[in-house]
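[Meeting: bench + compute handoff]

Bench side (C.D.) handed over the final construct sequence. Compute side (W.E.) agreed to return the predicted structure before the next meeting so the bench team could plan truncations. Sequence as handed over:
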Amino acid sequence: MSSRESPPAKPDDAPQDSTALHVLVTGYGPFLNFKLNPSWLAVKPLHNTTLRTLDASARPIHITTLKVPVTYASVLSLTPGFHVRPPVLPEPEDPDFAQSLAPTGGFDFILHVGVAGPGSMRVEKRGRKIGYNKPDTEGKFCATVPTDNDGDEDGQDTVKPPSALGQVGSVLYSWTNSLTAYLKMPLRGFGAGYEQFPEELFTQVDSEGLIKYLKETGFTHIVPSTNAGLFLCEFINYCSLAEAQRAASHQGSEKVTPTLFLHCPPVNEPLSTQEVTDTLQKVVSWVCSQ
């Protein structure tokens, strides 16, 4: 038997519809003790499948999936391509996951999925620009960010306090500030090329409306969050939100592609992979119906 991952669900055999919406869903690759990342296990069955919007038009929604390596360099090199028109995606390791339909007008929605701890799925509202002091799976750190105290031995690098909406993460900010001051670690995050973007970016998706809809369908293991962990999950979240704005600006458009990050738990803690996949389908259909 081949060691290659099992193929995704078969694509819809219906002819391509010019009114179809196009969605990219990403999951992450191996990470720590996850040889098969639960996020990718839930995402990959969606590849080259077609859903429908929830309104009367029932527009087709074609889904493309992509597995992203858990490295800062991969996120920085791949994410801008998600948002250009037409999108630029890398060749997948497995040809079964090749992109079959290239949306010349770009993706209509981009959904990123990553794994967190046991418990409910989390709708991440916010991405932060700095504070990424953990090494990735290759043992590498992201770039340092210049501060006003660079070159001052008595200066302390500090992280900007969170907004009112982000007070949930205030303890983490305090911890980051204290540890940075103690070890005099450099601030790390988004530097060159991202100077014009603010310290925090927020999803344009109506997360509260999405959660309400999911609960109405009977799915209750879903909560909002403003603390995605300041690691690769939050890193791709901020990067994608920024690149969505950059792409809209370059196109001279006021419409920014909706971008969202969801955290899922490890398999069967408490949700099965199928339950997460089913929920992702609901998320895609709901967002594309707004």
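W.E. noted at the follow-up: The first helix runs from residue 38 to 43. C.D. will use this when planning the next construct.
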